[in-house]
Write a structure and sequence with these properties.
Distance between the termini of chain A: 17 Å
Helix content of chain A: over 70%
Radius of gyration of chain B: 23 Å
Order of helices and strands of chain B: HHEHEHEHHHHHHHEHEH
Largest interface: A-B, 26 and 25 residues
Number of strands of chain B: 5
Number of helices of chain B: 13
Oligomer: heterodimer
Largest sheet of chain B: 5 strands, parallel
Order of helices and strands of chain A: HHHHHHHHHHHHHHHHHHH
Largest sheet of chain A: none
Number of helices of chain A: 19
Strand content of chain B: 5-15%
Strand order of the largest sheet of chain B: 2-1-3-4-5
Chain lengths: 456, 332
């Protein structure tokens, strides 16, 4: 079920919290309870994927126990391979076969497999753990602890990508202490901030963006204004959508007593592309750094190796978002941009901020065109429209885009508001309540959009 | 104030504000559906027919209705009033088929338990020769079936929304006379303010409305839906069957421009024929149901009687109104 739905906000979450409080306050009860609640949450989308998730938990935990018993590093290595294989089957089989057919002029057929929701995220949780196990950096966990790490419902569908050592030590802590009210108050507020980003900003931008990209898919070349509005609209839509989702996930986890890592830090204020990736989808960046970039050589084996490591990391990072050349190019562009930044810093004087910040933003916006387009032809049409090939018309919704830009550039981060600035004041509570009330009513309208990141 | 108070206040204010706004929405009755209303005055803002016809369909000042697609909306309620001695409301909704129209008919009949004068139903291509699913999946445009439903549950769900709250505010403005109300009798004269241009009209017709009407042959008639149009006629029969004999029901087959009339012997003609025979069957089963058939080639189908292939002009509408009046069964 979606966080931004009546079912979740008015039924699931209140019941889940109420029973969490009512069950005996012992770690085993609490943990198994949250595992069960998470499976209900996940199974509500499609119950047929629950067995896959359960097998994934049992299989990966079983491998860790096997490794504990025999100490052979082949075990976690095999585990990583198996996880990658399952991801490849569900996510990339059709893409691989289609490109193979194209290259070899063959006509292999592959049945379209339905992508289990969140597979990119929970498979990566498993892989990160097994990789740490392989390196000797991870303990063997109890089944219930590991199960909750993988299935914990706030994070299972679209992250944030949490490291086992960040979450699992929190699992056995008693959530009902003297700071409980503060935690719930801040978590609730963060959830509301996330809902505002999603429901009031991202979902309002969605039709503006969709209509132009839809027209492009029908081979219409939009006017210059419409094209820029759509591309900038998507730039802010995906930010508010995904960071809103992350805020909700972190806020909900906080209500249950868990601190998840933050995922966004005003990314469009970045001064360089390197800076951007320290602010955008931060938990993915960290994961890419620790499990791809550094193993590829990182910056410790000379410049050529570093450039290759960046290109390889971002190529795979792009592919992780989806089985399509548009994502590969998006990742590849970011890889090249990051490499260019490394070379610039090595050989040229520092770029002044007034130049580097807008340049970074422009680069990110251009790359989003590939990310949003269904195929390369659409992206090409969009670029030509942005250059004026479809005429100059179209300034609708420009004010709205500027407003979203203002919030994205100048606004404080959600975590800053909810975790630091927020004080338990009467007017703050009343304001948050009225916003929540507005959102509940908004969610009754017929147009609820799914989160952009659910497709990855 | 501590955090515990903060949480409590947040939740209590949310609950109270949400419930209050919900209650206000229900009481203001944005669509004048009369379900939980505190306002007794009839009428809604300038909504489209889909949203406005719940109000019109239950307005006690009317006892007779015109129901159908845009192909029946040029019938003038005021003229029908005079011809048939009734008080007519037009509940015709453009872009609808049997599923939507029967929901409106059911609504109108349920809200006039005291007596219905006349019901005029337009049975056009959406009933006869365009295969449609009889149900929500067959809607060309989204239709608020929840507004016309017999049970209030779906309505209650839809009232808990920002859109309904907004609509409620609009309605309040109408009630307080700060905004204009929609026309009570629902008449929507699509000719109003337009000059008729025969060339422009012909350009909207199959084959330019040319004399030879071979164009129809080019496209084979679509396959009839599963059940062959049965469910909608069964539903119509069930609704009409419950009416007292005093209610006059006119089943009108609206005219089409000649090039849109299926050629004799074509698949399309067979579909229309079976549609007409179903209507005749209904008429035979009930003393006061009449079939008014304008769907034929001949003088009525001349291109200059039409704005396009299916939307006729005022003079044709007058003929249909007269025919409905003449076919009215006499007192027995």
């Amino acid at each position: 079920m979606l966080f931004n739905s009546h079912l979740f906000l008015l039924v699931f979450l209140p019941l889940a919290v109420a029973f969490y409080r009512l069950i005996p306050n012992r770690a085993a009860f609490r943990i198994w309870y949250l595992v069960a609640v998470s499976l209900v949450f996940y199974g509500y989308w499609d119950v047929s994927f629950v067995p896959l998730l359960v097998i994934s938990v049992l299989g990966n935990w079983g491998l860790s126990k096997l490794y504990q018993a025999n100490g052979r590093r082949l075990v976690p290595a095999t585990g990583v391979a198996l996880n990658l294989a399952s991801l490849a089957y569900f996510k990339y089989a059709a893409f691989l076969v289609a490109n193979l057919n194209l290259a070899l002029h063959t006509s292999f057929a592959v049945d379209k497999v339905l992508l289990p929701l969140g597979i990119s995220f929970f498979t990566f949780h498993n892989i990160m753990y097994l990789a740490d196990l392989y390196r000797g950096n991870a303990p063997i966990y109890r089944l219930r602890d590991y199960a909750l790490y993988i299935v914990f419902f706030p994070q299972i569908v679209a992250g944030p990508l949490v490291r086992h050592w960040e979450l699992i030590p929190q699992i056995s802590k008693d959530p009902w202490g003297k700071d409980t009210a503060e935690r719930i108050g801040r978590g609730l507020t963060l959830l509301i901030i996330g809902l505002v980003k999603k429901v009031l900003i991202a979902d309002a931008l969605a039709p503006v963006v969709n209509s132009t990209f839809e027209a492009v898919s029908q081979h219409t070349v939009p006017g210059l204004g419409d094209a820029w509005v759509a591309v900038l609209g998507f730039t802010f839509q995906i930010y508010f959508d995904f960071s809103g989702y992350s805020d909700m996930a972190i806020g909900i986890a906080l209500i249950f007593g868990f601190v998840l890592p933050f995922n966004f830090d005003t990314p469009y204020r970045a001064l360089s592309l390197r800076d951007f990736w320290r602010r955008w989808h931060m938990t993915l960046s960290r994961m890419l750094r620790d499990y791809l970039y550094i193993p590829f050589g990182g910056n410790r084996h000379g410049l050529p190796r570093q450039v290759l490591a960046l290109l390889g990391t971002m190529f795979l990072g792009g592919l992780w978002h989806g089985a399509a050349w548009t994502f590969v190019i998006w990742g590849g562009l970011h890889g090249m941009g990051l490499a260019a930044g490394v070379l610039w810093r090595r050989f040229l004087p520092p770029m002044p901020t007034v130049l580097s910040a807008p340049l970074t933003f422009a680069f990110v916006v251009f790359a989003w065109v590939f990310f949003r387009s269904a195929d390369l032809g659409q992206a090409a049409t969009m670029f030509s429209a942005m250059a004026g090939a479809g005429g100059m018309h179209g300034t609708r919704h420009l004010v709205f885009i500027l407003l979203a830009a203002l919030i994205a550039f100048l606004g404080p981060t959600s975590q800053d508001v909810a975790m630091k600035r927020l004080k338990p004041a009467r007017w703050d509570a009343a304001a948050a309540a009225l916003v929540l009330c507005l959102i509940l009513l908004k969610l009754g309208d017929d147009t609820n959009y799914e989160f952009v990141y659910f497709q990855f | 104030m501590n955090w515990s108070h903060y949480c409590r206040l947040l939740l209590i204010v949310t609950a109270l504000a949400t419930l209050a706004l919900y209650a206000v929405t229900l009481a203001v009755d944005p669509y004048d559906a009369g379900r939980f209303s505190f306002i007794h005055q009839h009428g809604v803002p300038l909504y489209g027919q889909r949203m406005a016809d719940a109000s019109r369909g239950r307005d006690p000042q009317f006892d007779s209705a015109v129901i159908g697609n845009s192909t029946i909306q040029l019938l003038d309620p005021a003229r029908l009033d005079a011809d048939l001695d009734g008080r007519f409301v037009s509940l015709a909704i453009p872009g609808t088929g049997p599923y939507e129209q029967l929901a409106v008919l059911g609504w109108f009949l349920r809200h006039h338990p005291g007596g219905v004068g006349t019901v005029v139903m337009g049975l056009d291509a959406a009933w006869c020769d365009s295969p449609r699913v009889f149900g929500p999946a067959g809607e060309t445009y989204p239709f608020p079936a929840w507004l016309y439903a017999e049970q209030p549950w779906s309505y209650l769900g839809h009232m808990f929304s920002y859109k309904s709250l907004e609509a409620g505010i609009r309605r309040l403005n109408v009630v307080l006379r700060h905004a204009p109300a929609a026309r009570p009798d629902g008449y929507n004269d699509y000719e109003a303010g337009k000059a008729y241009d025969p060339n422009a009209a012909r350009s909207r017709m199959i084959n330019g409305g040319a004399e030879n009407d071979q164009a129809e042959d080019a496209a084979p008639a679509p396959a009839p839906p599963p059940g062959g149009g049965q469910p909608e006629f069964a539903a119509l029969a069930a609704m009409l069957g419950g009416l007292p004999d005093s209610v006059y029901v006119a089943l009108v087959f609206p005219p089409r421009e000649a090039s849109s009339v299926p050629l004799p012997g074509s698949d399309g003609a067979a579909l229309v024929a079976s549609c007409k025979s179903r209507a005749q069957g209904l008429a035979q089963s009930h003393p006061n149901i009449r079939v008014i058939d304008f769907l034929k080639d001949g003088d009525i189908a001349r291109p200059d009687n039409f704005w396009d292939g299916i939307h006729y002009r005022g003079n044709v509408a007058r003929q249909i109104e007269d025919a409905i009046a003449q076919a009215k069964p006499g007192p027995r």
